[in-house]
Amino acid sequence: MILSALLTSVGINLGLCLLFFTLYSILRKQPGNYAVYAPRLVAQRKSEQRSDFNLERLIPSAGWIRQAWQPSEQELLMGFGLDTVVAMRIFVFGLRVFTFAGIVGIVILLPINYSGNQLSDDDSDLPDISLDSFSISNVEDGSNWLWVHFCAAYALTGVVCYLLYNEYGYISSKIIDYFYASKPLPHQFTVLVRGIPVSVGDSVSEKVGSFFSEFYPTVYLSHSVVRRTSKLHSLINEVKQLRRKLARLKLNGNASNRHKREGFLGIFGRRVNVIDYYEKKLEDLQEQVRMEQSSLAGKEVPAAFVSFKSRLGAATVLHIQQRINPTVWVTEQAPDHKDIHWVFFSTSFLRRFISYVLVVVACIVITILFLIPVAIVQGLTNLEQLETWLPFLKGILRLAFIRQVITGYLPSLILQLFVSLIPPVMIMLSTHQGYVAYSQIEKSACIKVLFFTMWNIFFANALSGSALYQIDVILDPKNIPRVLAEAVPGQASFFIAYVVTSGWTGVSSELFRLLPLISNYCRRLFCKKDDEHVEVPSTPYHSQIPKILVFELLGLTYFFLAPLILPFILIFYCMGYIVYRNQILNVYMSKYETSGKFWPLVHSSTIFSLVLMHVIAIGLFTLKKLPLASALILPLPILTLLFNEYCKRRFLPLFKAYPAECLIKKDKENQNEPTMGEFYDKLATAYEDPALKAREYYGATGTNTSPLLRDTGTS
Amino acid sequence: MILSALLTSVGINLGLCLLFFTLYSILRKQPGNYAVYAPRLVAQRKSEQRSDFNLERLIPSAGWIRQAWQPSEQELLMGFGLDTVVAMRIFVFGLRVFTFAGIVGIVILLPINYSGNQLSDDDSDLPDISLDSFSISNVEDGSNWLWVHFCAAYALTGVVCYLLYNEYGYISSKIIDYFYASKPLPHQFTVLVRGIPVSVGDSVSEKVGSFFSEFYPTVYLSHSVVRRTSKLHSLINEVKQLRRKLARLKLNGNASNRHKREGFLGIFGRRVNVIDYYEKKLEDLQEQVRMEQSSLAGKEVPAAFVSFKSRLGAATVLHIQQRINPTVWVTEQAPDHKDIHWVFFSTSFLRRFISYVLVVVACIVITILFLIPVAIVQGLTNLEQLETWLPFLKGILRLAFIRQVITGYLPSLILQLFVSLIPPVMIMLSTHQGYVAYSQIEKSACIKVLFFTMWNIFFANALSGSALYQIDVILDPKNIPRVLAEAVPGQASFFIAYVVTSGWTGVSSELFRLLPLISNYCRRLFCKKDDEHVEVPSTPYHSQIPKILVFELLGLTYFFLAPLILPFILIFYCMGYIVYRNQILNVYMSKYETSGKFWPLVHSSTIFSLVLMHVIAIGLFTLKKLPLASALILPLPILTLLFNEYCKRRFLPLFKAYPAECLIKKDKENQNEPTMGEFYDKLATAYEDPALKAREYYGATGTNTSPLLRDTGTS
User: I need a surface site. Which of A568, B131, B466, B585 has the fewest CB within 10 A?
Assistant: First the structure.
């Protein structure tokens, strides 16, 4: 890619970003869009003031940026939970890393690369200069300037490790503070027990009760057995949808709308009043709900949430294997009760083991299938091949601008479209892996998306070639540094374009929320009045965190290879940070709290990026005929991995369970509080399936939303 | 190697074995050798009857074999502990595997291999037939007979996995039974706490006391802080040696022996009575011991053994991380108090982390250095090279018998000598890794020796070539099946000779105990009377188990490559089993009990052997132009690894800690026993360093062994 193609891409994307930002800053002020741009506030009834029309509403303003900056970390922590703060820290960490990397890269490395003479096409005009002239490829083989790159690799690794260590410690301390500040929460006192062996006719509930009251008589409090409620959940969903439909009909309906024909395809049969028809249907459904609820007593799943009188009691049961056979009576930390995915509650150890294996196989298959779109993208960057495939394009492809758009913009756009299909697929796979909580599913999906994206975007693209060739490379670890060092620098320009297109427009379109905006307009077009129902989306960590981390991977890997990429990534992090603070204040809501469980993932992927950078450095210094540097860089990955090992042992345990010190301190604090009796009463019923408690779907009784509904996570 | 060379080797070794067995069955009956062949019984005063001379004593008999067979497993379990039974089960497992493998190999595979015509030198006389004619190399490329080998690989894998699963389950049940049958033992109630952060002037003891009585007031019982006693231990050892010397002198001394000269080299100075001299020296030493013991109060190590009132209490503290920082107040299961290696008590988390890294580096260095003896061995098998190195040997090397000895016997003997140096080195390395118990050190050394032996005997020998070439192969996993399939079958004859030489003579010389026998004779030659001191050696699991497992590796890997190896391995297992039952009944004594912790190691190394067999099969079927078989064998390693994963989750946890079910059951059982008060009193002092309690080294008091001495493991 030449400089002008890059500038075209930057121009297009910058234009798009500005457009999105401007449109956002106007549209967000229109009262009709509140449900799109501030659903969180609407749900909390904070933005009800529907001001009249005035000119100020049509003028783009940047007030929202100031607003987004306002809340302090402490305020965010208290208002939005620890996960939000951790996600913010990920951006802050990236900003710090790339500020350092950017300064070193642009001020020191870029001039050295540009002043090199290794590449022959150096004498062309500035717009026609290949981006490779800014990369390390342009430095002469064996040049002593390469030692600057060598030092930069050591310096950046040191800085990143220092920042990582600090950040790990900081987040750890936040986790402890957050725990100390929390009031007693049901999940702190509860353990999920799975794989309870029962013979036919046995009652799971009795078995659990007798086991824990025999073994832990002093701390055992109560338990709730899980029941097979998937049918009930879908019935209740139907009831809810029907109720909403009815409410809308009653509000908006005109005469023509209020009648429909019964019978086959609505052609035959008599015309009936629609409202009567749906009310009849609703009654039938409610009767079914009642029947299903009453028949659930026999549908026990061999799993139960067991609550204890103290946090230490729950921790004891959690950490010690209960039975001689470790595949039965398996204990695990109970998730937040709002976080439980009741519908898919797999229990048997063996079944979960098999699902795990199958999901891994499915992920591999998806990764292999994904090479098809990657091949298409590679076809686009190779214009000659495209001309032979589609000869009628020859004429168009001769236009310089079209060429620049096709090589600089289209490939990453197409790739991005395909990549955006992956997170939902991975969520679906994780759901079938036997997790019981949304947060676990989301974290597992996050890891899958991250692996997938790293593999496909980075490796499959950088090691452009057939799948077999890639497997060949991976199965030949000795050659990996050489192969990477040969392939990766040449892809720098593609990745710069990728960062600009996918990162910048990704962030700004995330802000703009095009699809929700369109669906909102449609809804308002067809409904006369709002039905007041606002869906607050849950923060999509599983798709956002991998994206941030992939850009970090690109930034760190290309740090000394092609420092030109660094400012673009820095801008991405800046934009991301602002937009995220804004995605959080107005739009998204964390439906559950994982207490920063995402951070270790960030840590390990950063370490991976660093080691990858070192591996490429080893190969590169060999290619550049500086074998001494190649040998001297060897200790760096080893030290980095040792650092990682140390951090894992030093900090990771806290992300898995609270230490006795904290548990006992909190237990003692609560011991003599008069409210604890009330809390225990609440605790005893906290882990009942909301579908079982939802008596308002029985028919006869109330018609509107009830507090119990919130338990299913629809607020 | 040709058949006659193998027969020479078998002949030599069989002769040696018979000689050892015969000598053993005579020598064991001589009263003077009781200390060598039955030290365990002597120590237990069971073989004190010193019969007069009779002819029967000079006739070899096989009564000891019958004797070794007599005790049932239950008797062994009760008398010798679980480790002994597990070690026996390892032999039984090997016997079962190789009985099946041997039958399939000899009855089915060997005839198929021998009837093949791939190798051209098939028409020579029987004694000159190359052993390769019995290996798979002799089967024609692409022959359908290879499908028999294919089926055999599946069948053996199935049988081995079935046996492994059964054995894992059986040993698990034994562990539980053994635990239930045990009386209250101090280590069941105790936890070792390391890394207690103390500032200067703080008392560790006070800190530990206040921490546990604040956090676990209901279950905490007592604690003993560890002190730096390495100097004291060495002083006490000196005292013990001096006392033994004095006792011997008093018993045996004649006039000339009773005097020595004082002063420089004993030349100048006056003659003094030796006994007076040593008694004076002993007094000095005892004074030093007293001084050192009284000064230890200030030499606290930031580690303590903390005892609790119940097993569940100890388990709670063990399993839950105590402090926010997981690198301080680190808890681990307290080893049996007889098992503690007091001298080298490293405590800091960081120091242990660093030692671990350094030990790994040292192991790698040793492995690389070991290639030198391996190269020598390879020189011996290559006679032409030997002739060019040492031309004067030319004449001798032309004698057929010498050639056979050199190619068939010497290489494995030399290798075996070098290999026998490794276990003590590995024990030394493991000692510096921060383990606190002999059993942990031994297990860690066992793993190191196993890795080392597998690598050096199998890989370095099979992949004969430079170290760089080997690293090349390992760094190129894709090619491993091919390289192994090319290299391994050709080494079959070497390994058959190795099994015969190293295995058979190893086992029989283990029985014969040549070195202890010689040292015993020397002692009896120079001392007129026995000083009644019998050292009972501790079972050397760290060197025996790796040996057994390496033969298993060889047997499984060569199962279908060269089935000729199987009967030799089967004989090794038979001999080993008998001799082991005998080294156990009479000679060795387990000084501590690990409750079968060695079994998981056997399991994983068996899985490794199976997968290695599959990998070689993949390469081999490709080489033999049967790619379909090569592809169809692929699921086998995957299924085997999944089986391994399942077994790990199903059984492994029990080998790490007892489940709550067992702990609570035992706690309840003991709850109301009147003896528990007494036990608690004993528990409070059980984990005091024996060097601190050993008041008899103070001088003045008693001179003979006291019960406290047993605590240091010298019985």
Answer: B466
